[in-house]
Amino acid sequence: MPTPASAWSPPLPEASGFDHLVVETPGLHTHVAALGEGEPVVLLHGFPEHWWQWHAIAPVIAECGYRVICPDLRGAGWTVADDPRVERETRLRDLLALFDVLHIERTHLVAHDMGVLTAVQLTYDHPERVRTAVQLAVPPAFMTFSPKVLPGFRHLPSLVWHRPGASLRGTFSQAYVARPMSEETVEAHLAPMHRPDIDGAVRPLLRGMVLPEAVRMARGVYRRRRLTVPTLVVFGRQDRPWNEQLGRICRNPGRYADRIEFAYVDDAAHFITDDAPTEVADLAVDWFERAA
User: Fold this and answer.
1) Residue 72 is part of a domain; what is its CATH number?
2) What is the chain's pLDDT, residue by residue, as a tens digit (292 residues)?
3) Which of 119, 117, 124 is nearest to 108 (CA)?
4) Interior angle at CA 130, CA 129 and CA 134, nearest 5
5) Phi and psi at residue 175, in whole multiples of 5°?
6) Full residue range of the structural domain in which residue 116 is found
7) Distances from the Cα of 292 to the Cαs of 232, 250, 253, in angstroms?
8) Most CB contacts within 10 A, which of 80, 230, 272, 283?
9) What is the C-alpha separation between 177 and 277, in angstroms, rounded?
10) Which class for 216: exposed (0-12), middle (13-18), buried (19 or more C-beta within 10 A)?
11) Which of 86, 90, 94, 79 is nearest to 29 (CA)?
């Protein structure tokens, strides 16, 4: 049964129309925010965000006739894990278990930032579970690495060595947004970090999942595989250096993917869902309808 937003601790950020519930799977108590009716669309948040990242996007998608499901992934939001350890595919296993409980056979998938890693694993290893995919602010997994994209990883060292209690407000600095976020928005994104288990999950996520997956991409693991799920890759025009290097590091995409397209959003940077939520929602729905 849905749980009122006021019953959660810390309090959930305000967002109208969502039902909030806890889905029990082995070792995990996943908070899920959902709304709408129709074909499922699963939205996977980035870091250091959670379900509320989609508060202005999910309603637009739902109004187009979809059931939108926004889980807090392990180590984020209001989800509680029995075991703090994280391995490369831990979140993938979590997501598949969630699908089974919610009876999701196939879904449209939208992911941002760290959530894209789990989306990539799902689309390559379980393509039968995904109708279409939209990945935001992360290049395709078959990209080739270039020294010119190294500035795009400048945020990683501080996260790999994150000290519990250290502020993550710098994640939302002007280097990653097209327009400054309000204090209320930053606080809404970071609210769960006041919980020791969520703050303490930063290093396990980076060391157990992000770095091993990044190494696989750098070694060309995904260039030796075929992406069969129709995928739309979206970047903000101000998301440097990625928007400037995407054509260089993703040459000949048809060699690696059955159907892949690239789109750019003006006046948006890495946190594209905050900078341009309407544009993201419109691009996603258009892709669902064109590519499914």
Assistant:
1) 3.40.50.1820
2) 566 666 788 999 999 999 999 999 999 999 999 999 999 999 999 999 999 999 999 999 999 999 999 999 999 999 999 999 999 999 999 999 999 999 999 999 999 999 999 999 999 999 999 999 999 999 999 999 888 888 888 888 889 999 989 999 999 999 999 999 999 999 999 999 999 999 999 999 999 999 999 999 999 999 999 999 999 999 999 999 888 888 889 999 999 999 999 999 999 999 999 999 999 999 999 999 999 8
3) 119
4) 155
5) -70, -20
6) 5-291
7) 12, 23, 19
8) 272
9) 13
10) middle
11) 79
Q: What one-character-per-residue DSSP string does the chain give?
A: ----GGGSSSPPPP-TT-EEEEEEETTEEEEEEEE--SEEEEEE--TT--GGGGTTTHHHHHHTTEEEEEE--TTSTT-EES-----TTHHHHHHHHHHHHHT-SSEEEEEETHHHHHHHHHHHH-GGGEEEEEEESS--TTPPP-GGGGGGGTTHHHHHTPPTT---GGGGSTTT-SSPPPHHHHHHHHGGGGSHHHHTTHHHHIIIIIHHHHHHHHTTTGGGS-B-S-EEEEEETT-TTHHHHHHHHT-SGGGTBSSEEEEEETT--S-HHHH-HHHHHHHHHHHHHHH-
Q: Tokens at residue 256, please?
A: 């690696």
Residue-level length of the chain = 292
Angle at 45 between CA 150 and CA 152, to 5 degrees: 10
Q: If you search the block for the tokens 């499922």, which residue do you land on? A: 40
Rounded Cα distance between 161 and 207, Å, is 9
Q: How far apart are CA 172 and CA 193, in angstroms?
A: 14
- Total domains in the chain come to 1
